[in-house]
Amino acid sequence: QVQLVDSGGGSVQAGGSLRLSCAASGYTYSGYCMRWFRQAPGKEREGVASIDGYGRTSYADSVKGRFTISQDNAKNTRYLQMNGLQPEDTAMYYCAARAPPVGSVLCSDDLWRYNAWGQGTQVTVSQ
Question: For residues 22 and 4, is the Cβ–Cβ distance under 8 A?
Fold first, then answer.
């Protein structure tokens, strides 16, 4: 059974850093899209960073240059390093994957195409 576990959120001051983790089990993430989404109160869930099955990363303009995806294959875990955090980054963050059995190499903007979701981890950035 495919499972994703989010962790690493917390409260920081503006300019601070956090590293989110997405631990995958039930499948090996290599070769499949994984994406981080975030949702702030009253707003739609939006994609912020992704890594496709070819290892290509992509970042939303709002986080480009501040957020970076990395991975530890031995732990089947990917990370989202977030630097230079700002109050507008405050949100619940979720990792999601287009995992087997209907998995895909490519990522998508459509939330419904992601069949595995972490439980989310809260990030709060204060002035």
Answer: yes
- Reading the block at residue 61, the tokens are 């303009």
Q: Which residues pair with 22 in a beta bridge?
A: 6, 78
What's the pLDDT score for residue 45? 97
Q: What is the pLDDT of residues 18-63, one digit of tens each?
A: 999 999 999 999 999 999 999 999 999 999 999 999 999 999 999 9
CA–CA separation, 120 and 127 (whole Å): 23
Identify whether the C-beta of residue 10 lies closer than 8 Å to the C-beta of residue 124: yes
Determine contact, residues 125/86, Cβ cutoff 8 Å: yes
Report the distance separating Cα 54 and Cα 69, nearest Å. 14
Residue 107's pLDDT is: 97
Name residue, tokens 């950035």. Answer: 125
Could you tell me the CA-to-CA distances from 114 to 75, 77, 92 in Å, in that order?
Answer: 22, 17, 17
DSSP single-letter state for residue 61: T
The per-residue pLDDT for range 102-120, each reduced to its tens digit, is 899 999 999 999 999 999 9
Q: Cβ(20)–Cβ(122) under 8 Å?
A: no
